[in-house]
C-alpha cells in the first residue's frame, strides 16, 4: 500500500512538472506570437500609411480579378470605398471598354509572371478622361495563392503639357519656315540688286580684304569678279591717303563719303587721273564693333567720274 502511494505521488509530481514546463513553453510561444503579430501589424500600418499618403493610386486583386485592397488615395481620387468595391471585378465597376482592357493586362501579367507597364485611360465624374501610367506586378502569399498588385500615376496634365508643347513647336516651325522663305526671297532680291547694279559695289573684311565684288565693280577695274576674293584692297590699289581714310573709318566706326576724289590705277596708267564719288560704310556687329570676319565688313559704293 505504501509503495502504491509512493508511486502515485511521484507520478503526480512528474505530471505537475511536465505541466509547468508546457505552460512555460506556451507562455514563451504566446509572447513570440504576440511580438510577431505586433511587428506584422506595425508593418501593415506603415505600408498603409505609406500607400495612403502616396500621390500614386494603388490596388490589389486576387487571381480572379476581384478587388482586395484600395489605397486611400485611390478611394479619394475616384470617390469610392473599399467596403463598396471589395470582392468586385472591373466589369462590375468600370465601363466595358475600360474594364476589358484592364482585365487583358491583368491576365498578361498573371500569364507571364512579369511586371507590365502601360498607359491606360479612365473616366471621372462628368465624363472627364484621365491618362494613367500603370505598373502591374504579380505576387504570392505563403500558401502559394497568386495575386495582382497595381500602382498608377496620373499623367493627364503632363500629356496635355506635352501636346501643348508639340503644337507650339509646330507653330514655331511654321513661322520659322515662313520667315526663312521671306529671308531667302529678300536675300535673293538683295543678291540680284548687288549683282546686277550698275553702281560698283564691294564687300571688305576688317583687314580690307575683298570678300565679294559685283560685276559693275569688276568692269570698272577691268578685272573678273573671281579675281578679287582673297586679295587685299591696297594690294591691288595702293594709296596712302585712301588707306589712312579706311583706317580712320575702322577706328571711328563712322562712314566716309568722298566726292570727285582723284585716283590713278597702277595697272592702267593709260587712264591717267580718274575721279570718283564713293562711300565707305562700316557694318557693325551685335557688340557695336566692326565685324572681324567675312560676315560683315565694309560696303563701298564707287562711281567713276571725269
SSE map:
Layout: H1 2-53, E1 57-62, E2 67-70, H2 72-78, H3 82-85, H4 90-93, H5 96-112, E3 116-123, E4 129-140, E5 146-154, H6 156-196, E6 201-204, E7 210-213, H7 215-220, H8 233-236, H9 240-252, E8 256-264, E9 273-282, E10 298-305
Antiparallel strand pairs: 1-2, 1-5, 3-4, 4-5, 6-7, 6-10, 8-9, 9-10
Could you characterize the architecture of this molecule?
The chain has two domains: 43-172, PAS domain (Beta-Lactamase, 2-Layer Sandwich), CATH 3.30.450; 195-305, Beta-Lactamase (2-Layer Sandwich). The chain is α+β, with helices and mostly antiparallel strands and 306 residues long. The strands form two sheets. A five-stranded antiparallel sheet has the order 2-1-5-4-3, with helices on both faces. It has a five-stranded antiparallel sheet with strand order 7-6-10-9-8. It is 48% helix and 24% strand. It has helices at 2-53, 72-78, 82-85, 90-93, 96-112, 156-196, 215-220, 233-236, 240-252, and strands at 57-62, 67-70, 116-123, 129-140, 146-154, 201-204, 210-213, 256-264, 273-282, 298-305. The model is unreliable at 292-306 (pLDDT under 50). A hairpin with an 8-residue loop joins strand 8 and strand 9 (273-282).
Amino acid at each position: 500500500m505504501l509503495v502504491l502511494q509512493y508511486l502515485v505521488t511521484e507520478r503526480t509530481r512528474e505530471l505537475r512538472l511536465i505541466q509547468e514546463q508546457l505552460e512555460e513553453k506556451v507562455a514563451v510561444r504566446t509572447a513570440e506570437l504576440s511580438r510577431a503579430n505586433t511587428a506584422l501589424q506595425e508593418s501593415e500600418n506603415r505600408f498603409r500609411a505609406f500607400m495612403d499618403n502616396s500621390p500614386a493610386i494603388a490596388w490589389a486583386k486576387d487571381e480572379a480579378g476581384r478587388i482586395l485592397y484600395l489605397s486611400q488615395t485611390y478611394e479619394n481620387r475616384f470617390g469610392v470605398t473599399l467596403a463598396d468595391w471589395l470582392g468586385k471585378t472591373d466589369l462590375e465597376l468600370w465601363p466595358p471598354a475600360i474594364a476589358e482592357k484592364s482585365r487583358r493586362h491583368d491576365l498578361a501579367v498573371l500569364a507571364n509572371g512579369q511586371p507590365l507597364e502601360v498607359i491606360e485611360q479612365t473616366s471621372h465624374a462628368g465624363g472627364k478622361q484621365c491618362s494613367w501610367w500603370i505598373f502591374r506586378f504579380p505576387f504570392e502569399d505563403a500558401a502559394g495563392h497568386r495575386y495582382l498588385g497595381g500602382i498608377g500615376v496620373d499623367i493627364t496634365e503632363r500629356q496635355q503639357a506635352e501636346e501643348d508643347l508639340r503644337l507650339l513647336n509646330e507653330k514655331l516651325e511654321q513661322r520659322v519656315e515662313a520667315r526663312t522663305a521671306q529671308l531667302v526671297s529678300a536675300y535673293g532680291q538683295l543678291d540680284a540688286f548687288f549683282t546686277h547694279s550698275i553702281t560698283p559695289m564691294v564687300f571688305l573684311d576688317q583687314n580690307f580684304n575683298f570678300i565679294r565684288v559685283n560685276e559693275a565693280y569688276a568692269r570698272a577695274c577691268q578685272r573678273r569678279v573671281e579675281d578679287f576674293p582673297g586679295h587685299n584692297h591696297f594690294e591691288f590699289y595702293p594709296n596712302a591717303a585712301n588707306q589712312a581714310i579706311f583706317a580712320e573709318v575702322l577706328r571711328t566706326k563712322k562712314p566716309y563719303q568722298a566726292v570727285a576724289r582723284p585716283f590713278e590705277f597702277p595697272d592702267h596708267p593709260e587712264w591717267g587721273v580718274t575721279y570718283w564719288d564713293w562711300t565707305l560704310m562700316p557694318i557693325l556687329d551685335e557688340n557695336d564693333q566692326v565685324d572681324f570676319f567675312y560676315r560683315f565688313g565694309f560696303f563701298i559704293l564707287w562711281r567713276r567720274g571725269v
